[in-house]
TrEMBL record:
<feature type="domain" description="HTH gntR-type">
    <location>
        <begin position="1"/>
        <end position="69"/>
    </location>
</feature>
<dbReference type="InterPro" id="IPR036388">
    <property type="entry name" value="WH-like_DNA-bd_sf"/>
</dbReference>
<dbReference type="InterPro" id="IPR008920">
    <property type="entry name" value="TF_FadR/GntR_C"/>
</dbReference>
<dbReference type="InterPro" id="IPR000524">
    <property type="entry name" value="Tscrpt_reg_HTH_GntR"/>
</dbReference>
<dbReference type="Pfam" id="PF00392">
    <property type="entry name" value="GntR"/>
</dbReference>
<protein>
    <submittedName>
        <fullName>FadR/GntR family transcriptional regulator</fullName>
    </submittedName>
</protein>
<dbReference type="InterPro" id="IPR011711">
    <property type="entry name" value="GntR_C"/>
</dbReference>
<keyword id="KW-0238">DNA-binding</keyword>
<dbReference type="InterPro" id="IPR036390">
    <property type="entry name" value="WH_DNA-bd_sf"/>
</dbReference>
<dbReference type="Pfam" id="PF07729">
    <property type="entry name" value="FCD"/>
</dbReference>
<keyword id="KW-0804">Transcription</keyword>
<keyword id="KW-0805">Transcription regulation</keyword>
Amino acid sequence: MAATDKALAGLRQMIASGALGPGEKFPPEPELCDHLGVSRSSLREAARSLAALGVIESRHGSGTYVSALDPAEIISRFSLSVELIPLEGVLELLEVRRVLEAHATAAAAARQDPLLEKQLTDILNRLEATTDAAEIQALDAEFHDAICTAGGNPTVTALTGVIRGRGGHYRIFEPGADFDAIKQTSDRGHRAILAAIAHRDPAAAATAASAHIAQTELWLRALRPDPQVALGEG
């Protein structure tokens, strides 16, 4: 095992076992190196890797600490890797999103938040009124994020957001022969989701969400668009 891998495995074991809990400060560097049997350079490289994942954080003038280990925050860092996944992998992720978002949409319907219906109606009114691809993409994301947030599980919201972010790079709402049909079908799918939430029907909400995302999978399989990622986009 390479020295850096050994240091990384040691730190992960300490955190996973609870020897270093959320918010706790790391032991002094020399002590930690002795405990893990690694050099300072290997330890620092391993620490940088964990920092990139949101597992640890450095506080200027204070030292290195385990982060809060918030699941949603850590999962949001997956976007660094997920954005590299090609279309076939994205289609597999959409199956995961379909299950998670169906659950979140059912939960949102069950929670019966009276403000959610108004929020979603406003988003859909703007979404149905536009034919601008970038605006469609943004409003679609806002709609689904609002529902997942209302579902009450931040981890599910973060994970579906990461998947949706990569899927959004394969844009199906670009001008072309299929644009009107795709847009109209998508709008109907959104309305079906909203209707189920408004009627406080979790089963219907889950079915509508699952069907809507399954339709997106079908479009991506049929159109197979190239990813469009702007420089600096994250």
